[in-house]
Amino acid sequence: MFRKTVLAFGLGLAMVSPAWAESFTGAGASFPASLYQAWAREYAVASGDQLNYQSIGSGGGVRQIIAHTVDFGATDKPLKPEELNKAGLVQFPAAIGGVVPVFNLPGIGPGQLRLSGGLLGDIFLGRIKRWNDPRIAALNPGLKLPPFPITVVHRADGSGTTFLFTSYLAQTSPVWARAVGASDAVKWPAGIGGKGNDGVAAFVRQTYGALGYVEYIYARKGKVSYARVQNAAGQYPAPEPASFAAAASAAPWGRAAGNYVLLLNQPGAETWPISGATFILMHREQERPEKGRAVLRFFDWAFARGDATASRLSYVPLPASLKAMVRQQWRAIGGGK
Predict the structure, then answer these.
(1) Distance (Å, rounded) from C-alpha 104 to C-alpha 336?
(2) I need a labelling partner for 219 at 20 to 30 A (CA). Which of 21, 86, 142, 287 fits?
């Protein structure tokens, strides 16, 4: 039944899918990989269509969709409107989540450590080298911080997670903004690199004194402790779906060309400051229209039937109004040349 609801390829009409099953491919961001793979399993049962999604990082997803080697790319770093136009792409959000600092300190559990953007900037710059530094202690008067060296762990691959984390640092640490800046791949002043969110979580879990950053899902899955981070209201909310949703609630989606929206440092006492959406990239003109229709049928089904799965996996589903806007935007995707 869901197949009759999808709108696509500028027709503005209900479409009925072909009777045979379709296979299609996607690649990119590791953050939504668990969600897309869960959706794909459920969707295959419901429709027979098969999605093969490869978690290779946001940078890889952008490169592969530009090279026409996948049917959709996935990225946590939205492309700017001029980048979309140059590559002939459109993008739309698929889910919402958050990036969290993770650490390995014996005796200090999840949510007990507090950090600010300025502190994180100085730690990742290598200017704060030990956990019992007076500046960290001042924010955490109730914690017994050890004199361990801080081992900084960052991503080794092109990463939308890195883009969100370094963008937050650039907004909150002028020193970081001048010295390093924000990108999906930066020249790290300190630390060691792990591949993917899983790689960073594994390094942190195995190394006493380590501090890294991962998407929230990977902190839970990897069973590593997370820190609370100071938000724009000066509060230290817990990283959880409700605080990610709070960041998304006031975002200017309808006014953002190309859906270029960042959810960093949004206002509100309960807002997680390093929140972000994950995005899907597709070619505006489809060389293989049947594949494009298969991609849109999949996300149409996911928007209609996938919220429970998203919530169970600790992702934040898109609000209904945003889903409606995105479905209307699919009309801009054309088929065939």
Answers:
(1) 52
(2) 142
Cross-strand pairs, 226: 102
Model pTM? 0.84
pLDDT score of 18: 53
Would you list the DSSP string of 265-329? Answer: T-SSTT--TEEEEEEEEEESEESSHHHHHHHHHHHHHHHHH-HHHHHHTT-BPPPHHHHHHHHHH
Cα gap 294→24, rounded to integer Å: 7
CA distances from 215 to 97, 163, 320 (A): 7, 12, 24
User: What is the structure's pLDDT at 197?
Assistant: 87
Q: Is 307 exposed, middle or buried (0-12, 13-18, 19+ CB in 10 A)?
A: middle
Q: Hey, how many other C-beta atoms are within 10 angstroms of the C-beta on 94?
A: 26
> 96: left (phi > 0), else alpha (psi -120 to 50), else beta?
beta
Residues in the chain: 337
Q: Are 191 and 124 in contact (CB under 8 A)?
A: yes
Q: Which helix (H) or strand (E) holds 163?
A: helix 160-172
- For residue 243, what are the CA distances in angstroms to 62, 228, 268? 28, 12, 9
3-state secondary structure of 198: helix
Residue 4 confidence (pLDDT) above 60? no
Give the model confidence (pLDDT) of 120-154 as tens digits: 999 999 999 999 999 999 999 999 999 999 999 99
Contact predicate 118/172, CB 8 Å? yes
Choose among 152, 129, 157: nearest CA to 207: 152
Kindly report, residue by residue over 70-121, the tens digit of the pLDDT.
999 999 999 999 999 999 999 999 999 999 999 999 999 999 999 999 999 9
Pairwise pLDDT comparison (223 vs 294), residue with the higher score: 294
Indicate if the pLDDT at residue 195 is higher than 60.
yes
- Of 326, 325, 308, 330, which Cα lies nearest the Cα of 317? 308
